[in-house]
Design a protein that fits this description.
Elements: E1 2-9, E2 12-19, E3 25-30, H1 41-49, E4 52-57, H2 76-90, E5 95-100, H3 102-113, E6 118-124, H4 129-138, H5 140-145, H6 148-152, H7 157-173, H8 180-190, H9 195-204, E7 219-224, H10 232-237, E8 246-251, H11 258-261, H12 263-276
Parallel strand pairs: 3-4, 3-5, 5-6, 6-7, 7-8
Antiparallel strand pairs: 1-2, 2-4
Length: 279
């Protein structure tokens, strides 16, 4: 049911996975770090089989055809532009947007800046960026959880650490919550020349991002209670930054890797959200 396709934009060629027929309800899914579109395999099959046209790109830096060298070329504005360019190439005027981890960060920005294009937004794991920023400043627990961001931004050193010993550092990131098959796939992708640096440049360019305001589109936020990077302070505060219809769902005993660790539970929530907002 899942096809491998290419989408050509002014920035370059994105590799994508797609399921369902064109003409179905348009759904775009954005992966996180250090993953790829295949993290949405379960959701793509379910959405495609449920009348949607679901598309998940390997995002900037993860697609070899869109892998610029400079960190500044991974600033949030560029990532938002990629989402719009992909939707335009698909001929989608409006679409449902789903993002996990850094893909959710991009999704928050798209939903804020282009609400006319986004029918609904679903964020998985990553809270509203302002809620996270405030939690990091005010909550010692969240500050400790986010300490890894400093490490990921260090040039060259982080690449050596994560790729050493056949990618042992990369493998540990997944906390043994993701299938060995997918972890192996992710590691092999990021071992390609320049690939891990490109993925890390998302973090190295974060300071270049402008503010993200409250989101007015119907929004679902899903957070796992065992997420080691995002604590309850930021998760619970996200509601303050949703000015439209908002639903918060906690998945007990689930870690940061929700789409792959709890695919059935997440997919039920996503489908319920889409069905509740058809317009």
């Amino acid at each position: 049911m899942i096809e491998q396709l290419e989408i050509h934009t002014a920035a370059g060629t994105f590799d994508v996975l797609a399921a369902g027929s064109p003409g179905g309800r348009e759904v775009l899914l954005l992966h996180g770090f250090p993953e790829a579109a295949v993290e949405w395999e379960f959701q793509l099959e379910a959405l495609g089989g449920g009348g949607c046209h679901a598309v998940a790109p390997d995002q900037r830096g993860y697609s070899p055809g869109v892998r610029p060298e400079r960190a500044a070329e991974y600033r949030l504005e560029e990532l938002v532009g990629d989402v719009v360019a992909i939707a335009d190439q698909l001929g989608w005027e409006r679409f449902d947007l789903i993002g996990h981890d850094c893909g959710a960060l991009v999704g928050w920005a798209v939903a804020d800046r282009m609400p006319g294009r986004v029918r609904t937004f679903s964020a998985v794991s990553y809270p509203h960026p302002t809620a996270l920023e405030h939690a990091m400043a005010e909550d010692e627990d969240q500050a400790q959880r986010a300490h890894h961001l400093t490490t990921l931004r260090q040039p060259r050193t982080t690449e050596r650490i994560l790729l050493a010993d056949d990618g042992a550092g990369l493998r540990r990131i997944f906390e043994w919550k993701v299938s060995e098959e997918h972890v192996e796939d992710y590691v092999r992708r990021l071992e390609q020349p320049g690939a891990l640096t490109a993925a890390l440049n998302w973090y190295r360019a974060m300071h270049l991002a402008g503010p993200i305001g409250p989101v007015s589109v119907p929004t679902l936020y899903v957070w796992g209670t065992e997420d080691v990077t995002i604590g309850s302070t930021a998760a619970l505060a996200t509601q303050k930054y949703a000015s439209g219809p908002y639903r918060f769902e906690m998945l007990e005993d689930v870690s940061h890797w929700v789409p792959e660790e709890a695919p059935e539970a997440l997919t039920r929530l996503l489908m319920r959200h889409l069905l509740a907002h058809r317009a």
